[in-house]
Design brief:
The structure holds two protein chains of two kinds.
Chain A: H1 9-22, H2 31-43, H3 49-62, H4 65-72, H5 81-88, H6 94-103, H7 109-122, H8 128-134, H9 140-153, H10 156-168, H11 175-194, H12 198-209, H13 215-228
Helix pairs in contact in A: 1-2, 1-3, 2-3, 2-4, 3-5, 4-5, 4-6, 6-7, 7-9, 8-9, 9-10, 9-11, 10-11, 11-12, 11-13, 12-13
Chain B: H1 3-12, H2 18-28, E1 55-60, H3 64-73, E2 79-85, H4 89-103, E3 109-111, H5 114-120, E4 126-129, H6 133-145, E5 149-152, H7 160-173, E6 177-179, H8 187-197, E7 204-210, H9 237-241, H10 251-257, H11 267-283, E8 293-295, E9 306-308, E10 314-318, E11 328-332, E12 335-339, E13 347-348, H12 353-368, H13 374-384, H14 392-411, E14 415-418, E15 423-424, H15 428-432
Parallel strand pairs in B: 1-2, 1-4, 2-3, 4-5, 5-6, 7-10
Antiparallel strand pairs in B: 7-11, 8-9, 8-14, 9-10, 11-12, 12-13, 14-15
Helix pairs in contact in B: 6-7, 7-14, 8-11, 8-12, 11-14
The chains are: A mainly alpha, B alpha/beta.
């Protein structure tokens, strides 16, 4: 397969420039050599933020397991943390999940929110316990990101963690956090229903119908439960 | 979930209205936890429309296009615009002035922060979203999660994944969603679509869809030179970028110069394809799907790209062929029809088709209850909870066509797309381009 992505307009020019910085001149279509050059850019102290960001863009399309380690090292970088995730998120290698999970205990604030978001996008079921702990985080942004990510993972375990957090925090959880917990639960129920686990889905919907959330959220749960009847 | 269940869920589109919600909240005591601001419309000042039937509206990111749509919406007697949210002070003030002048008061509230806007204005039934393209899907999702119905300008998503997320959110919360493909509510275009759908043109084999005759399919990754960031109160640059990768501030982006940049734009294909693909797909009853094949053309724009649907119909992207913008042409075994903006009437292969088109438009309006007025259709649906003509599925599938065509051009090779699984066949690189990691904290 040709790697036509290298012809991606401005990206190709940017990558050519950054490759020149790294001294590379590999043959077109040689993905391994291209990836090695891009990794070298990530590691280069001389490479600019723009050059590294462009390398991440390129790696988002052609990156392999070899790029995971160097990208993971950037997850805590205030300037490049997002671009590291930009590259990592679509790489279909379980090493990415390990790297993202491994970053959870090292980060805080927005960078942590970002990593939690990527874990959700990748639907990593092994992250449920770690994300469940984040539902008690003092940072609301972290709580909300964890709730949505657990919803995307959509397992029974994820749902249990969300339900526990919602019900135990009825009087103390801020309204915005509660909305995120409810969103997570709705996502779980939808995911379980899609997998044929309608009993579990129905139980979640029913719980939400009486939960301390706005009426339109309870209505969403009612609609979800009604839709199960048509399956 | 079965297709039947999904269909049932989306067809009901939130039977509970804001008024029903208020009653239910009061009955359950939930309002004590989530206090509801009494809508300004409930005060019933002036107007013949009963306050309980009035739609309370807000706006997010109202620039020049948004102002056009807002001016279209304001005269609707059953709509009351109450608040605007924008990261640009200049636009917040401009919209407030426009709205206050329209109503003869000083009541339009302004917000710089979308989170605060959506969390505090629980009195709003619906929002008009007219940010730059990069924010359309995310703002729509956040608004629908907050219980609002959404009218979103187009192109309404930046990736296939974003489009799917809009569909899921609308279905989950039973929200009315309308993408701003207004030609689906204009008589000339509907007439052409109905001529194709009704069989008057015989079996349709080719659809020609207009793409913007400027710019290119390839987009820039270059950063404009950095400029000093203005105070956050003037322009919140971090929020302006939203889910997109960071880059240094340059006022050109904020003034509309974001077009042509990969992070912010969907190219010349998306610029008009967001309209014309929906129009074309409507004429062949393909609004719930996307083409399976995209044949690469060796030029910079995608002009001449042939796409093919599973049923064999081809849709060809063209920069030329019409005298106006956003044109479309249906070619069948027994005739053709072509139309674009500014046409007094559609062009047809036989004069006898014109009265047929007029009749078909009348029948369409009778059958669907939809007016030839896109924003009115939205407001009608906010009240009736019926699906809008350009609902989330219409947006997602027509925009998937845009994204797949762009990916074909970017990869410089033919691509094959499975519109049911929403993935490219045997093409890992194309599949990676279906989504983009969003910048924190703006993650769906």
């Amino acid at each position: 397969m040709s790697h036509g992505i290298l012809g991606l307009g401005g990206l190709s020019a940017a990558v050519a420039a950054t490759a020149a910085q790294a001294g590379g001149d590999d043959e077109p279509g040689d993905a391994g050599a291209t990836e090695a050059r891009l990794i070298a850019i990530l590691k280069s102290p001389e490479a600019s933020r723009k050059a590294k960001a462009d390398a991440c863009r390129q790696l988002s399309v052609i990156g392999s397991r070899a790029a995971v380690g160097p990208l993971a090292e950037l997850l805590g970088d205030e300037e490049l943390g997002h671009m590291a995730r930009y590259a990592l998120e679509p790489i279909p290698d379980p090493a990415v999940d390990d790297a993202l999970r491994g970053a959870l205990d090292k980060l805080s604030g927005r960078l942590l929110v970002g990593v939690i978001g990527s874990i959700g996008v990748r639907r990593d079921p092994r992250a449920v316990d770690a994300l469940a702990r984040r539902l008690q985080d003092p940072d609301s942004q972290v709580v909300r990101a964890a709730a949505r990510a657990l919803g995307r993972i959509g397992t029974l375990e994820a749902a249990a963690a969300l339900e526990k957090a919602l019900m135990e925090g009825i009087t103390t959880t801020p309204a915005g956090d509660r909305l995120a917990l409810a969103e997570g639960l709705l996502r779980c129920a939808d995911a379980l229903a899609a997998k044929g686990e309608s009993g579990a889905a129905e139980r979640i919907y029913a719980k939400l119908e009486t939960a301390p959330v706005p009426s339109y959220v309870r209505e969403a749960a009612r609609r979800g439960r009604s839709s199960l009847a048509a399956t | 979930m079965s297709e039947a269940a999904d269909a049932m869920r989306s067809s009901t589109v939130g039977r509970m209205t804001r008024r029903d919600c208020l009653k239910a909240a009061a009955a359950t005591g939930a309002a004590a936890i989530f206090p509801t601001i009494v809508p300004a419309s409930a005060l019933g000042r002036g107007g013949a429309v009963a306050p309980s039937e009035r739609i309370t509206l807000g706006g997010i990111g109202i620039g020049s296009r948004g102002e056009f749509v807002l001016k279209w919406m304001l005269p609707e007697s059953d709509v009351r615009f109450l608040a605007v949210c924008d990261v640009r002070k200049e636009r917040r003030e401009a919209v407030k002035n426009l709205v206050d002048q329209h109503y003869g008061n000083q009541d339009c509230a302004t917000f710089a922060d979308m989170g605060e806007f959506l969390a505090s204005r629980t009195d709003l039934d619906a929002v008009l979203i007219a940010t730059g393209d990069r924010w359309h899907a995310l703002a729509a999702i956040l608004a629908m999660r907050a219980g609002k119905d959404v009218y979103s300008e187009k192109p309404s998503c930046m990736t296939i994944a974003e489009g799917r997320a809009v569909v899921e959110t609308a279905n989950r919360y039973g929200r009315i969603y309308q993408t701003g493909t207004q030609r689906l509510s204009e008589a000339n275009f509907v007439g052409a679509i109905e001529l194709a759908r009704s069989g008057r043109l015989g079996k349709i084999h080719t659809v020609r869809a207009h793409i913007a005759p400027w710019d290119a399919a390839e987009l820039s990754h270059a950063w404009l030179p950095g400029e000093p960031e203005p105070p956050k109160e003037e322009v919140d640059w971090d929020a302006w970028l939203g889910p997109c990768p960071w880059r240094p501030y340059n006022s050109t982006y904020v003034r509309g110069g974001w077009r042509g940049h990969y992070d912010f734009h969907t190219s010349c294909i998306g610029e008009w394809g967001a309209h014309t693909f929906a129009q074309g797909q409507a004429g062949i009853d393909a609004l719930n799907t996307s083409p399976r094949e995209y044949c690469y053309v060796k030029n910079a724009t995608g002009d001449g790209m042939v796409t093919k649907f599973a049923n064999g119909v081809q849709m060809i992207l063209q920069r030329d062929g019409w005298q106006g913008s956003c044109g479309m042409k249906f070619e069948g075994t027994e005739g053709w029809v072509s139309v674009a903006d500014g046409y007094e009437k559609p062009e047809v292969s036989s004069p006898s088709l014109l009265p047929e088109a007029e009749k078909l438009v009348a029948e369409y309006m009778e059958r669907t209850g939809r007016p030839m007025n896109h924003v009115r259709n939205f407001f009608d649906c906010v009240k009736s909870r019926a699906q809008a003509v350009a609902g989330p599925e219409v947006m997602h599938h027509s925009m998937s066509t845009v994204h797949a065509a762009n990916i074909c051009m970017w990869l410089k090779r033919d691509v094959y797309y499975d519109p049911i699984r929403e993935e490219f066949l045997n093409d890992a690189e194309a599949n990676r381009l279906r989504s983009r990691a969003q910048r924190e904290p703006w993650i769906i």
